[in-house]
């Protein structure tokens, strides 16, 4: 059974699985550690249970979970749009498609440490935010876009007491100051020391929500403090602050982009992505079979331009298809095609057996049965031929009655049909005319009996024949 599944996989299916596995893996690399990733993980778990409920026939449970999954996917886009935007704001396409270290540039820690302690020496207050993996833009307000490279002069000018934005926070991402004058949420905790001012409460307030590192320079005491994970502590010298910054931005890692533990994590994520997408593919394409029957018109291909199809046994055929319920429900009639190759057809009657090769199906849908399995088509070179008309009398005239003469209008007619058929016909007959009730001369209108049905009356000829017959009465038996 398992071998039959794998033997039915086309190269397109393998490429489909690998492509989507890599997309899922890249999403993991870009969003790991963020709130978006945690919510997506929850949605995946919910989707897994929804598929389990569907397989077990729990209709209501499956329907409810499917609704929650769809709504949750929409919530991610709306609620976490800022976090998604910040992750995808890469300087080049490489950072999104295949780079494993998403950074906007290394933070110049030495310059930052020197600048902060120079501000502390002159009792110049400052509030600096270094984001972590989580998005901070939904927790801060205001601010002026800056996007300037970090330098001691730049930092000193931002927090100079006569600068209109000196009371707000400066946000540093990579080697740039991206925003200044930003307002942070204030902590409402009651156990904060009374000598901490608004800057310290703002630093603690932001650290309570996300994994950012916030540096505070006290204007009153000239002290430097850092807040992270909801806690704040005083930093006494540049060496200590440098170590804290290195730990936050990841500079203290080994030269290798991925230590052994992280390599194992990434490898496991790649393998998990492949297994998950493969499972999804099988659930859609090789899941519990559902049957459906469609009426599909027959298309004739590669016909000799000198010949025409004069007659066909059927115009469409019934195909019974099988596949997963999801694929069958989404199947459209135009996705299924039945094609017959006429490149080897000869003049006259041709018989074609419908096989899998004649039917085009979307991926994951399989042919179960076809009816009818044989199609007959008559091909020939169309010609015109003028033929005399003969009335096809049937029955027995009454006693004492005889038909003395018959006049036909027209006497001849032009037919259009296959050459090999018309070559065998010398006379064309009308449809049967009964004589049982004839007792006097009369005029009637009859149609022609065209056999085979592929024969057609030329557009310049009449399709009705006027028959005028003359009756002679005798005294004896006819």
From TrEMBL:
Function: Catalyzes the condensation of 2 ATP molecules into cyclic di-AMP (c-di-AMP), a second messenger used to regulate differing processes in different bacteria.
Example GO BP: cAMP biosynthetic process
InterPro entries: CdaA (IPR034701), DisA (IPR050338), DNA_integrity_DisA_N_sf (IPR036888), DNA_integrity_scan_DisA_N (IPR003390), YbbR (IPR012505)
Keywords, sorted A to Z: ATP-binding, Cell membrane, Membrane, Nucleotide-binding, Nucleotidyltransferase, Transferase, Transmembrane, Transmembrane helix
This protein's name: Diadenylate cyclase
Protein family: Belongs to the adenylate cyclase family. DacA/CdaA subfamily.
EC code: 2.7.7.85
UniProt GO MF annotations: adenylate cyclase activity; ATP binding; diadenylate cyclase activity
Oligomeric form and interacting partners: Probably a homodimer.
Domain DAC per the UniProt entry, residue ranges: 81-240
Catalytic reactions on record: 2 ATP = 3',3'-c-di-AMP + 2 diphosphate
Regions crossing the membrane: 29-49, 55-80, 264-284
């Amino acid at each position: 059974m398992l071998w039959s599944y794998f033997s039915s996989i086309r190269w397109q299916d393998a490429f489909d699985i690998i492509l989507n596995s890599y997309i899922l893996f890249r999403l993991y690399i870009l969003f790991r550690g963020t709130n978006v990733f945690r919510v997506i993980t929850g949605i995946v778990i919910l989707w897994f249970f929804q598929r389990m409920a569907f397989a077990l026939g729990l209709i209501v449970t499956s329907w409810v979970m499917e609704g929650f999954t769809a709504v949750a996917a929409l919530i991610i886009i709306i609620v976490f749009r800022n976090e998604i935007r910040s992750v995808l704001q890469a300087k080049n396409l490489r950072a999104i498609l295949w780079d494993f270290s998403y950074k906007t540039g290394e933070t110049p820690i030495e310059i930052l440490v020197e600048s902060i302690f120079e501000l502390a020496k002159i009792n110049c207050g400052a509030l600096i935010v270094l984001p972590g993996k989580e998005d901070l833009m939904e927790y801060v307000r205001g601010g002026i876009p800056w996007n300037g490279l970090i330098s001691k002069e730049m930092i000193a000018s931002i927090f100079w007491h006569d600068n209109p934005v000196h009371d707000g926070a400066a946000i540093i991402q990579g080697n740039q100051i991206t925003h200044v004058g930003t307002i942070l949420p204030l902590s409402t905790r009651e156990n904060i020391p009374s000598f901490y001012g608004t800057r310290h409460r703002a630093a603690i307030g932001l650290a309570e929500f996300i994994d950012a590192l916030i540096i505070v320079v006290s204007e009153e005491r000239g002290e430097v403090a850092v807040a992270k994970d909801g806690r704040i502590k005083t930093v006494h010298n540049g060496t200590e602050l440098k170590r804290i910054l290195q730990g936050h931005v990841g500079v203290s890692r080994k030269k290798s982009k991925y230590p052994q533990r992280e390599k194992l994590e990434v490898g496991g994520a790649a393998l998990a992505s492949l297994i998950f997408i493969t499972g999804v593919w099988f659930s859609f394409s090789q899941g519990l079979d559902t049957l459906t029957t469609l009426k599909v018109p027959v298309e004739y291909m590669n016909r000799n331009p000198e010949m025409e199809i004069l007659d066909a046994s059927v115009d469409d055929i019934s195909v019974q298809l099988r596949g997963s319920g999801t694929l069958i429900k989404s199947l459209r009639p135009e996705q299924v095609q039945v094609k017959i190759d006429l490149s080897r057809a000869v003049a006259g009657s041709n018989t074609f057996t419908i096989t899998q090769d004649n039917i085009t199906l979307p991926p994951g849908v399989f042919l179960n049965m076809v009816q009818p399995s044989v199609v007959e088509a008559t091909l020939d070179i169309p010609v015109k031929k003028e033929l005399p008309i003969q009335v096809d009398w049937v029955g027995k005239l009454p006693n004492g009655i005889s038909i003395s003469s018959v006049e036909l209008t027209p006497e001849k007619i032009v037919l259009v049909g296959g050459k090999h058929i018309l070559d065998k016909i010398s006379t064309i007959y009308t449809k049967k005319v009964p004589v049982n009730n004839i007792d006097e001369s009369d005029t009637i209108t009859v149609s022609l009996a065209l056999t085979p049905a592929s024969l057609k009356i030329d557009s310049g000829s009449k399709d009705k024949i006027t028959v005028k017959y003359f009756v002679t009465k005798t005294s004896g038996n006819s």
